[in-house]
Amino acid sequence: MEAPLELDANTLDDPGEILAIISDPERRGALYPYLHRLRSLAPCFHTDQLTGSPAWLLTRHADVRTVLRHRAARSDHRGVEIFDQGPAGRIFYEMQLNTLLFMQPEQHDRVRSLISRAFTPRSVDLRRERIQQVVDELLDPVVDANGMDVVADFAYPLPMVVICEMLGVPAEDLPLFQRWAHDSHRRGELGLISEEVVARGEEATRGFQDYFLGLIREHRRHPREDLMSALIEAEDGGGRLSDEELVGSCYILLQAGHGTTADLIAMAVNALLNHPSQQAELRADPSRMQRAVEEFLRFDTSVQISQRVANETMQIGDQAIPPGEVCVLFNGAANRDPGAFQDPDQLNLGRDPNPHVTFGMGYHTCLGASLARLEIQTALSTLLARIPKLQFTSEPPAFRSNLFLRGLSTLPVEFA
Ligand code: HEM
């Protein structure tokens, strides 16, 4: 269910007004009509309205892909500036500088090559059986009930358990991680940051840091067959990850690895509930799931926005973007661009080809894409196989207020 539209997007002619609606935390449900309107009026819109400093907002599929693949467009330390809250928020800020998304290019490429060696499709495939087990364990207690909250009971715990286990975090510490992850996530919600949010973000970041440093020490003493030991062992021409890089890498794997996937699963279930005939077809032929997941990834993505800085003049369509300027890429708008997808607002579970940009591309292509695909496929296949009838309840689903990371805060369903 999408929130009702209060303003017909097609009657709006001022890109600034449209962006104000897009940024309004109360209107997250109805996002795409406004992104369409912004794309058709100002596909390369220069404004400081979104992040507080001047940036080029790109909404066309071709332009987003051009920037993602451009050798002069990198994500680096400057991308963290939007999170700067002065000395009171320093720990969170500095942690971001040590994550792949915001490292300087040279450091990024070195750290990424070390992490990806420990994060291969083969190591992901080894998780297949365990992921199925976690999905079943989450559904066991609810299948005989009348319903559940898809977000809290199913979509959220699955990727959290999976990534924590991969990193070697014991199950009893999961609640700690859930709290820290929640507080860290809120700290990233631009426009909604209060003193309290900054303080809790600091506490959560310190919690992560201390915990991971302890876990790293423990793994150094007693290496195991997990991702953490692989990260510690990763070596490239004699260079290893420093402790700061190890902590930053665990942090980004955890933060990038759970909320994004959880949100995608819940929004995919939401899409299925909104499209009963497609749900029935998928139930009738589960072999269509792999392609269907690509369409869920395109249709409503959890990572709506990425950022790049131009290191030299970049030609984007008719627009020359000068060196040093920031591009904000609207992945979700690119995925709904009629210039790239036929009937982009239609959910088409057989869509092929499906060149969505949900996992980005180029230098920062999502490292966890194969893990995310496996989790989403297993979650949806098992949910449909074990629960023969799923429907909305009288309580509607609700979107969270975050624009950059889109997701539902609740999705109550009943098993009629
Ligand atoms: C449906 C789920 C997911 C979505 C939609 C998603 C999306 C993305 C996107 C768009 C980027 C690129 C950001 C940019 O270009 O600035 C990215 C990067 C990244 N993702 Fe994912 N992701 C998902 C799941 C995961 C998982 C499960 C993991 C790991 C366990 C993960 C780890 C990462 C990491 C480490 C990066 C940074 C790569 C780099 O900067 O080199 N992601 N993700």
Brief synopsis:
With 416 residues, the chain is an alpha+beta fold. It has helices spanning 15-23, 32-41, 61-69, 90-97, 105-118, 121-125, 128-139, 150-155, 157-167, 174-187, 195-221, 227-233, 243-274, 276-284, 289-299, 331-335, 369-386; strands spanning 44-47, 55-58, 73-74, 147-149, 235-236, 239-240, 305-310, 314-316, 319-321, 326-330, 391-392, 398-399, 408-410, 412-414. Helix content is 50%, strand content 11%.
How is the secondary structure organized here?
Layout: H1 15-23, H2 32-41, E1 44-47, E2 55-58, H3 61-69, E3 73-74, H4 90-97, H5 105-118, H6 121-125, H7 128-139, E4 147-149, H8 150-155, H9 157-167, H10 174-187, H11 195-221, H12 227-233, E5 235-236, E6 239-240, H13 243-274, H14 276-284, H15 289-299, E7 305-310, E8 314-316, E9 319-321, E10 326-330, H16 331-335, H17 369-386, E11 391-392, E12 398-399, E13 408-410, E14 412-414
Parallel strand pairs: 2-10
Antiparallel strand pairs: 1-2, 3-7, 4-14, 5-6, 7-10, 8-9, 11-14, 12-13
Helix pairs in contact: 1-2, 4-11, 7-9, 7-17, 9-13, 10-11, 11-13, 13-15, 13-17, 15-17
Bound molecules: protoporphyrin IX containing FE.
CATH class category name: Mainly Alpha
Domain count? 1
Strand content: 5-15%
Number of helices: 17
Structural class: alpha+beta
Percent of residues in helices? 40-55%
Any low-confidence stretches, pLDDT <50, length ≥5? none
- The neighbouring-strand order within the major sheet is 1-2-10-7-3
Average pLDDT, rounded to a whole number, is 92
Number of strands: 14
- The oligomeric state is single chain
The second-level CATH architecture is Orthogonal Bundle
Termini gap:
18 Å
